[in-house]
Amino acid sequence: MKRMRYTAAAILFGTFFAVSPVMATALHDTKTETAVTEQQADMIQDDVPAVPADEKKKIEEARKQVVARVNGVPINMYDLTGMMNRVHSAFYSHIKEPSAEVTREIEQRALDRLIFEELAVKEAVKQGIEPKPEDVQKVIDQIKEAYETPEGFQRYLDGTGLTEDGLRERIIRSRRLEGITGREVYQKVGKREDVVQKMYDQYKEEGKLKKADEFFVKEILVMDAENEKATHERAQALLAELKAKNYDFGKLVLDGTFIVRKSKISKAKYPVIYEKMLEMKVGDFSGVVEDNGTFHIFEVTKNELARDMTVEEARGFIEDRLAPYFQEERRQAWMKELRDGADVEILLDDLKEDKQAGKKGE
């Protein structure tokens, strides 16, 4: 079949292939519950120009041009080029002028994604995943509201080559895809211990898992008296009283000469207390300690020197970092499951040649 070729500029900036902000969210963003954000609404408040007749014709022609079939269901050039825009933005935005080879790679990834989506949506229907009609209508109402007038909304539909029923079907399709992806990918993500350990070892070697000193005390801070000698004498009296009350801070009567508080001890701020704590254990009580001109009596509540986190301590952090990897691994496995046994016919000449070449190489 005759294949339509597009330059990099056409892929990125082509008028009738451009995906509007609202359409991109309403049809493709499977993580967003609301189709139109306030920011997007602000972007489209101005009057939407009518789509020229020749552009509408191009859209119609692109929708008629079949580039692949999945179990007999056609995928058209309009959808392929829209997906190519998304793939380029997500993975190739750093390439300003894609070569023919890169453009073909973008095209292949986009087509693979569309094939996957078609198979996934069919699986969603098979599993009984159906969006609520009121949720779908809410999205349409939000789009209408964003375009302000029936005429503006109609121009939006003209620009995407859809009817309102067609838009409704696209939203339903998007919600089905969201639901089945959650069920088959996110709920079935595996966690490989060898990968977690490998990242832990790497981060540890790079010094990214260091825990700072954690020195904490519960202390009596003696308030300044008329002179240092008087303050020290009051500290000694408080220490004797604390011992008599079996080191129960709660039994001391606050009289304005001291406060009881919990403090984090840093070597820079309280070097004397810090050094003393190195020789103490949790639960130990100090005598009167002078540090930076103030007098303290404290109980050690925690004294852990800087160290590397253990695997278990770092697990949550590492698994969060690895989540996209595990999700993509599961997604690829599921894509293979869906493709196995599916009747996929590629009609684009160059991609068809790539597929045939791949088969010969197997």
Describe the overall structure.
- The chain has 362 residues and is of the alpha+beta class.
- The chain has 2 domains: 8-188 and 324-361, Triger factor/SurA peptide-binding fold (Orthogonal Bundle); 213-305, Chitinase A, domain 3.
- Helices cover 55% and strands 13% of the residues.
- It has 14 helices and 9 strands.
- It has helices at 8-13, 21-28, 38-43, 53-64, 77-91, 100-126, 133-147, 150-160, 164-184, 193-205, 228-244, 271-277, 311-339, 349-361, and strands at residues 66-70, 73-76, 210-211, 214-222, 258-264, 289-291, 294-304, 307-308, 344-346.
- Strands 5-4-7-6 form a 4-stranded antiparallel sheet.
- Strand 1 and strand 2 form a beta hairpin.
- Helix 5 packs across helix 6, helix 6 crosses helix 9 and helix 10 (193-205) packs across helix 13.
- The longest helix is centred in the last third of the chain and has 29 residues, at 311-339.
- The protein is elongated, with a radius of gyration of 33 Å.
- 21% of the residues are buried.
